[in-house]
Amino acid sequence: MTGLRSWLPCLVAVLLAASLASAQQAQQRITPNFKDADIQQIAEAVAAATGKNFIIDPRVRAQVTMLSATPMSPDAFYEAFLSILQVYGFVAVPAGKVIKILPDANARQYPANDLPDRVNPSSDEMVTQVLDVKNVSAAQLIPILRPMIPQYGHLAAYPASNILIISDHASNVARMIRIIRRIDQVGSTDVEIVPLHDASAAEIVRVVNSLYQGANAAEGAAVKVVADERSNSVLIGGEQSQRLRIRALIAHLDTPLESGGDTRVRYLHYADAEKIAPKLKEQMTGIAQATAGAGGGAAAGAAPGGGGSAAAVAERNAMVWADPTNNALVITAPPKIMRAINDIVDKLDIRRPQVLVEAIIAEVDVDKDAELGVNWAAFSDGNTIPAGSFVSPVGGTSIVDLAGAVQNPGTASTTLLQGTTVAVGRIMGSGVNFAAMIRAIRGDTNTNVIATPSAVTMDNQEAELKVAQEVPFVTGQYTNSNANTGTGSVNPFQTIQREEVGTILKVTPTISPEGSAVMMKISIESSSIGQKPAGAVDLVTNKRTITTNVLIEDGGVVVLGGLIEDNSVKGEQRVPYLGNIPLLGLLFKTRNATSTKNNLIMFIRPKILRDQAQAAYETDLKYNYMRDQQRSLDSQHELVPLLPGVTRGTLNPLPPPPPQPAAHLAPGQPTPAPSAAFPVVPPPAGAPPVVTDPNAATASPAPDANATPATVPPKP
Fold it and tell me: Mean pLDDT across the stretch 267-288?
């Protein structure tokens, strides 16, 4: 009882507070009625009832009539005010602790609350909602929702994240969200794989796409048909009803041909039909056996003896032959073999890069000969008795020639003596005659041979460049005396063989898989006609040959090989006994000395021509160089075009090549000109002057008989 009394005052206080709150709430309920009132007056009434702060745009002008029969709370009064704004084309945009009342045309330019944050979904407050779409494309929903958005609203899709952005009144945004949720459902779209047995996947897809392309566009369907040529299958993606319809069509098309094979003509662009046709015939046998083996052992062994096996039937129905006129392949084969052959042809019929091979063959020869001495000869009554019969080592007139001239006075004046020669003798009609020849001769021969062959060839294709003369050589002779006729006539007969003398370049380039280097099989031969030595019965040729395999970077320069030869020969010929007498013996002896120095070195540089533009650039480079040489020879007359149809002075102007470092060359070494393929720096000070050869992209130093030629390969 005591506890009840203690709680009684508290209970009374609670009841009193509740009654006061109910009375206060009843006092706050209002019944707004306005007739032709200014909208700003209604905003003032809403602000007084709800305690909200408003900022009214000066453009907000309207006369509003609002009638209410029942009291309403301040929140309900605010919702009614938002509806009034929407009716008259205005919106309320929350901005922190204030609310901006603006024309609805400017609503999208101001931030709005998100729909879940403190906003009643049924209100007319301006809100912005970012909606994540799960199962359909957000872009496909734009045409569906666009008619539901007012002009001042905003609707956009972001395909990267598949989301929708909606700005409108909260009630309209909530309505569109419900529509989107109904559309954004997991459908029956799936991907189905249909393997083919007889038809080609690419052909089936082409037929199906051409048939259903218009229907899909009209119905808005998202059916996809893709060919997998590797497994010869068709992938179908879309609704189940569409997949069933396309699958039925594929089953009807995937039937074997009545003839057991198909015939097609493949026109080749780069490959040679006659070369690849035999290889394809060999490949068909293996493909037929592999296809029959994959089809099962039962089918392959249906007919004993192999005559009716699947492999034998496929092989009989498959054939390929080449049409060289059109460079085409005529292929007849079942679909599976046809697909395999087409794949092989696609990989073989490709554009192969070309390789420009430039070479420099430099050869410098220096020959020096010297002879000093006295030759003697004696003869009696037409019979020559040589006292010192010597053959001139430098190719001049010998004492034997002189003796013949002495015996024949009619030809004595025509006998030529090279060098400084003094001849004495006694010529009589009968008796003993004698002749003597004092000879002093010096011969210097300098030879500078520069060859710059170049050739363009396909990858893995041999190229041969030959600049040579066919020189005849006597290989045998035969003399037949006609003894049977008694006339004693002689029929001489000689056999002659012609050999090529000059520069011959054979090269087979192979481009590396990465395309940065070239492996080259090279054979270079440089030959020339040499000086005929004493006692030789025919011509003598000097031949230099290099056969090697090298790996060179694209555009790099490499030295293939070099030969430095230095020969020195000294000889002495004397009259027996008389030549050994001191001092006096000099009149009965001849001394000679021969010195030969030969320098030979070869360089090569490959350039990969990957496309037509690079090939045209190299062509213009060569053409412009030859055009400049032609202009330098004759600048007074109109130039004749080097190429038919090209009438201009040069082709497209080319940028100057960048400077490239190179090694200094010793005196006597050929130096390329600045426009040459292998530029080098000028020779060091003190070197002989350089003489430029206008017919080749090289330069040669002035010959110096006392200099020793040396060869230094330029650095690439």
Answer: 84
